[in-house]
Amino acid sequence: MRFQRLAMLVLVVGLGACGGGGDHGKGGSGDDAGPTTTSHEGLSCAEVVDCLSACPASNDATCENACVARASSDATDAIVDLATCIQMNQCSDEACVLANCEGELQVCGIDTTGGHS
Predict the structure, then answer these.
(1) What is the span of the domain harbouring residue 45?
(2) For the segment 38-79, what is each residue's pLDDT rounded down to a tens digit?
(3) Cβ atoms of 14 and 76 closer than 8 Å
(4) pLDDT in tens, 13-33
(5) How many CB atoms lie under 10 A from the CB of residue 72?
């Protein structure tokens, strides 16, 4: 499922909680991510979701972490909001995400009319 990994990332990577996942959206040194990025540099939210979808089905944390590490700070905020919605609604399929998180998907730049970003 396209969005399932996104919800899992809030727990795995921490995205703004409990550390361990880097300086996502905090303007930190990003010592493993190259130069400090502004809010508009890096992958968009939709690009991060596409990147996560391309990771191996074996829940490859290295791949998933790399996708998130490449997100812009604006995208990180949108990803956290979308992942939170998915978790709060206990979505386990794309239909649930579309039904319950349409606003978050639109902020993320993901087409909710049946196409892809």
Answers:
(1) 4-19+37-108
(2) 446 899 999 998 888 888 877 678 888 898 899 998 998 898
(3) no
(4) 445 433 333 333 333 333 333
(5) 21
Helices and strands, counts by H and E, the chain:
6, 0
Q: Is the pTM of this model over 0.85?
A: no
pLDDT for the residue numbered 61: 82
Domain count across the chain: 1
Dihedrals φ, ψ of 103, to 5°? -60, -45
**What 8-state DSSP symbol labels residue 81?**
H
DSSP 35-100: S---TTSSB-HHHHHHHHHHS-TTT-HHHHHHHHHTB-HHHHHHHHHHHHHHHHTT--SHHHHHHH
Per residue in 82-92, is it b (16+ CB within 10 Å) or e — as a string? bbbbbeeeebe
Q: Nearest-CA neighbor of 68 among 17, 117, 19, 24? A: 24
Instruction: Give the separation between CA 32 and CA 101, rounded to whole angstroms.
Output: 32
